[in-house]
Design brief:
This protein is mainly beta. About 10% of the residues lie in helices and about 35% in strands. It is built from three helices and eight strands, in the order αβαββαβββββ. The radius of gyration is 16 Å and the shape is globular.
Length: about 150
């Protein structure tokens, strides 16, 4: 009998409770398949231009559930980011790529989240193909799920 890789087994165990809810479970490993190039326009650091693989394109416009660490950007403006990693090792600290964070656009105003709070959220995933100043991914109509 063939053994499953540990990462696959862990992913199945973590997502199995949400499989029956109608939303597509989304794991960071899938989003990490996105590659990007840095263009020369956009100031000293340039802009990131994502290249979404078919495995990520399949989620565009779909209601998904994903887990991660909350990073408040502007609580007064209801602006939060979900990160694959805690703040100390996330994209904003230079320890990860732009494919490891997504913008959260909550249905309702939020003010209860703390930095590095681990949550599960559901919402509609949108891929950003055109705005060089935006995140690669946005979760619209987001709400905490569990």
């Amino acid at each position: 009998m063939r053994k499953l890789p540990q990462n696959l087994l862990l992913t199945l165990l973590l997502t199995s409770p949400i499989l029956a809810l109608g939303q597509k479970p989304l794991v960071w490993f899938t989003l990490q398949q996105t590659t990007y190039e840095v263009t020369e326009s956009g100031g000293a650091l340039g802009n990131y231009r994502p290249r979404f693989p078919e495995s990520v394109e399949a989620y565009d416009g779909q209601e998904v559930i994903i887990q991660g660490f909350i990073i408040p950007m502007d609580v007064g403006e209801n602006t939060y980011v979900l990160s694959m990693n805690p703040f100390s090792s996330c994209f904003f600290c230079g320890n990860a790529g732009p494919e490891t964070v997504l913008e959260l656009k909550f249905k309702d105003a939020q003010s209860k989240f703390l930095t590095d709070q681990f949550i599960r959220v559901k919402g509609t995933l949108r891929l950003n193909r055109y705005n060089p100043n935006g995140f690669f991914y946005t979760l619209e109509k987001a709400e905490q799920n569990g």
